[in-house]
Design brief:
757 residues; alpha/beta; Rossmann fold; 5 domains; seven-stranded mixed beta sheet; 26 helices; binds adenosine-5'-triphosphate; ATP binding; P-loop_NTPase; DNA binding; 3'-5' DNA helicase activity; UvrD-like_helicase_C
């Protein structure tokens, strides 16, 4: 080691020691504070005077808030002790000539004079580390763009509080840290990448929040990982505006949620909502139902079994997710709302309190923005209020009216039996009238309100989508008779089985939102959708309307759009029709997951799709060539799979055997267990997790996941050249980090026949 490097090591060791000491001091101080706060709170409760407790309450609140902050720092400081930072940057700003040495980590720590001991990776200045080459660099600060001279960029390997190594990055050096990170094995959880975020990823993480953002990124470009870092970034940057529970991640399934579950806590962020679309819809719709497994249709389509309705089924799935359905619902609601208000004035007997025209105006115009049944509630409140204002007056005037007549007779007529009878009659009539008025007034508002429709959500849904005449009146010539018939039968059967498609759920949820409103108020302001290419336009539109926000981050890859028969086909569709052209669009083409050899093969496959998307560019990481073999009989394929598993099982943490369908996975499990591999687990969509080890997984379920080694098997199923099969194949090939084996019956993987001799 050169003298200079030795000196630098010494300096860094001392600095690390100092930082860890300082962290420990803070941890100890925090522990003391925590104990003090607890006893302060206890004291405050003990001193609580029920008559005049304001001071004690204030004490409790102040101390609880402080306690919260102390606890928050305490946890992150404790985590930071083993590895307080991962990088250092030295910068010179224009304002001062002094060199500033900044250490970047996953938490921030300050000295008493407010100078940083550790700079949080999310702070504006830390952006320089991710974006900047040595020399003049700019970054966005709260006060505007700043320019600094980046003099040094250093990366550390620190483990258990010990400095193991550091590397300085100059203009030409490869990112050795990134290389090392990518060499690691995959387990069953995604990891944080705070120390190795790349410049193009940093741009996505820090892209403005106010506009919707769409990220089209190739397989393995870090979309899922970045989505989570973006949330952590915003929670830090807008600490005073957003709470973690203002954020929601919508993921494809529970397996996936589990797979990503460690990243945010690792970044010091807890309590972000993480859910699946189905779960969210259950919450919106407010009652239990069965959801048709989306893979069922997928299985029907990929197994290519002759089914005369495949074309109609494809049409139906795509139609149900289209914005056309939203237009139909909007038109339907426009029609039903016209006849919602009773054709009757709000009146206490002959006394009109509010004219029907005014109630109608209130319903249609004044309350326009809110759901129909919520409008009824508002009208009820309004009528109650207005009736309260005039009720006494009506009674008084009625009484006066009678009294005037009585007085008139008394004044004008001589006493006689006839006069007496008249007076008795009038007095009785008055008392009777007043009594009926009083009686009617007790239930007047309620009775009027019962004249508004009281239809159930599912009856509206049924009316609109199963009644062919109703449907016809809204779709006009857009659908053929056959399509209307098919749709209405499909929905009828779904209702009777109480089993719905994902698309039906967005339809029902959207109808509920517009007609009834939801039970809960949601605090969600920012929605992050991963694997967004699998969503239908209606699904995204419904979420936007229901959460009433534009702050969406959609991440996806159209090349992996295996549900394109029912989902988004182009991002333009989303930008133009859902977010009104105000969307930011970014692309990621660098792929970090797989080796060059594997990515080249996957690219050869996806090129055949000709969807004009950028091909993935793998980072410079070489590995073994994919092993591709085809055989004439099934036993040979199974034997080859078995041999490969035996060969690699001790070297890797996670190995997946990917088959096209679930059925083939089950078949292979049986065959491999005959050979002694009895522990293999077949993954299905209901599963919440899979441990590391060897698993069998259908191609469509492998999406989003990754494994050290992948064995792709095509024994009974074929991967043809159609778009769906090419995408499924691409998804399967791009799941592997290090090794790829492809074993098939000869000719079963058409795309490979054409790329390999
Ligand atoms: N900057 C980075 N540093 C280290 N590892 C990275 C980086 N970016 C991505 N990775 C790794 O690359 C792999 C792929 O990341 P991720 O799963 O987030 O990509 P993706 O775009 O969502 O993939 P896909 O669309 O194929 O599911 C992960 O193992 C992730 O840790």
């Amino acid at each position: 080691m050169s003298k200079n490097k030795e000196e630098a090591y010494q300096e860094e060791r001392e600095r690390l020691e100092y930082t860890i000491d300082y962290l420990i001091q803070n941890i100890n101080a925090t522990e003391d504070y925590k104990n003090n706060f607890k006893s302060n709170i206890k004291e405050a409760y003990e001193n609580l005077d029920p008559q005049d407790s304001s001071q004690s309450y204030i004490n409790i609140i102040i101390n609880s808030n402080l306690l919260e902050t102390a606890i928050k720092n305490y946890t992150s400081y404790k985590k930071a002790v083993k590895k307080p930072y991962f990088a250092r940057i030295d910068i010179k700003s224009e304002a001062s000539d002094e060199l500033e040495k900044l250490y970047i980590g996953k938490t921030s720590l300050f000295k008493e004079d407010n100078s940083p001991v550790i700079l949080d990776w999310r702070s504006p200045l830390a952006s320089v580390y991710y974006d900047g080459r040595l020399g003049e660099v700019t970054y966005d600060s709260p006060g505007g763009e700043e320019i600094v001279d980046l003099v040094l960029k250093r990366q550390f390997t620190i483990a258990e509080g010990e400095l193991e190594n550091f590397v300085d990055i100059d203009i030409t050096a490869n990112d050795a840290f990134l290389q090392a990170a990518l060499e690691e094995n995959a387990d069953d959880r995604l990891k944080d990448i705070a120390s190795t975020i790349q410049a193009e990823q940093n741009k996505v993480i820090r892209a403005e929040l106010k506009n919707p953002l769409i990220v089209q990124g190739v397989a393995g470009s870090g979309k899922t990982t970045i989505a989570l870092h973006r949330i952590a970034y915003f929670i830090y940057t807008y600490e005073n505006i957003f709470d973690p529970d203002n954020f929601m991640i919508i993921a494809p399934n529970k397996l996936f949620i589990n797979y990503i579950s460690e990243v945010l806590p690792e970044l010091g962020v807890e309590d972000v909502n993480q859910t699946t679309f189905t779960e969210l819809m259950e919450d919106f719709i407010g009652f239990k139902f069965k959801v048709k497994n989306p893979f069922e249709d997928m299985e029907t389509l990929i197994q290519n079994k002759t089914n005369e309705n495949v074309d109609l089924l494809k049409w139906l799935l795509s139609f149900k997710g289209s914005l056309k359905v939203k237009d139909i619902i909007d038109d339907y609601i426009s029609t039903i709302k016209e006849t919602f208000v009773p054709d009757e004035d709000f009146a206490l007997q002959e006394n009109i309190i509010v004219k029907k025209e005014n109630i109608k105006r209130m319903f249609l115009v004044d309350l326009e923005g809110i759901p129909l049944y919520k409008r009824v509630e508002e009208i009820k409140k309004n009528l109650k209020y207005r009736f309260g204002l005039v009720k006494k007056q009506i009674l008084r005037e009625t009484e006066n009216e009678f009294d005037r007549k009585i007085q008139h007779i008394r004044n004008k007529e001589f006493e006689s039996e006839e006069r007496r009878l008249k007076l008795v009659e009038l007095i009785n009539a008055r008392d009777e009238k007043l009594e009926t008025l009083r009686k009617d007034s007790t239930s007047l508002v309620r009775k009027y309100i019962t004249k508004f429709p009281k239809t159930k959500l599912m009856d509206y849904y049924k009316d609109l989508f199963t009644n062919k005449e109703t449907l016809m009146s809204y779709v006009g010539n857009d659908l053929s008779k056959e399509q209307i018939e098919y749709l209405s039968n499909y929905v009828k059967s779904a209702i009777s089985k109480k089993t719905f498609d994902l698309e039906d759920l967005s339809t029902i949820a959207y109808m509920r939102h517009k007609i009834f409103g939801l039970d809960k108020k949601y605090s969600i302001k920012n929605v992050v959708i991963d694997e967004a290419q699998d969503y239908s336009p209606l699904q995204i539109y419904a979420l936007k309307q229901i959460f009433n926000t534009n702050m969406f981050t959609l991440l996806g890859d159209l090349s992996q759009g295996i549900y394109s028969y029912r989902a988004i086909n182009t991002w333009d569709e989303v930008m133009n029709n859902i977010f009104d052209n105000k969307t930011d669009y970014m692309t990621l083409v660098q792929s970090y997951r797989t080796t060059i050899e594997i990515m080249e093969l996957a690219n050869d496959v996806i090129k055949k799709l000709d969807n004009q998307l950028d091909l993935a560019k793998p980072v410079i990481r070489h590995g073994k060539k994919p092993e591709i073999e085809s055989f004439d009989n099934e036993n040979e394929v199974i034997e080859a799979i078995y041999q490969s598993i035996e060969e690699i099982k001790d070297n890797y943490t996670s190995i997946a055997v990917i088959c096209k369908s679930a059925e083939e996975c089950m078949y292979l499990k049986k065959e491999l267990s005959k050979k002694g591999l009895t522990e293999l687990q077949v993954i299905d969509e209901s599963q919440e997790n899979y441990g590391a080890g060897i698993i069998l997984v259908p191609s469509y379920l492998a999406k989003g996941l990754e494994f050290d080694a992948v064995i792709l098997a095509a024994i009974k199923e074929r991967f043809t050249m159609n778009a769906l099969d090419l995408k499924l194949l691409y998804v399967a090939l791009t799941r592997s980090l290090h090794r790829l084996f492809i074993y098939s019956i000869r000719g079963n993987i058409e795309a490979l026949n054409q790329t390999t001799p």
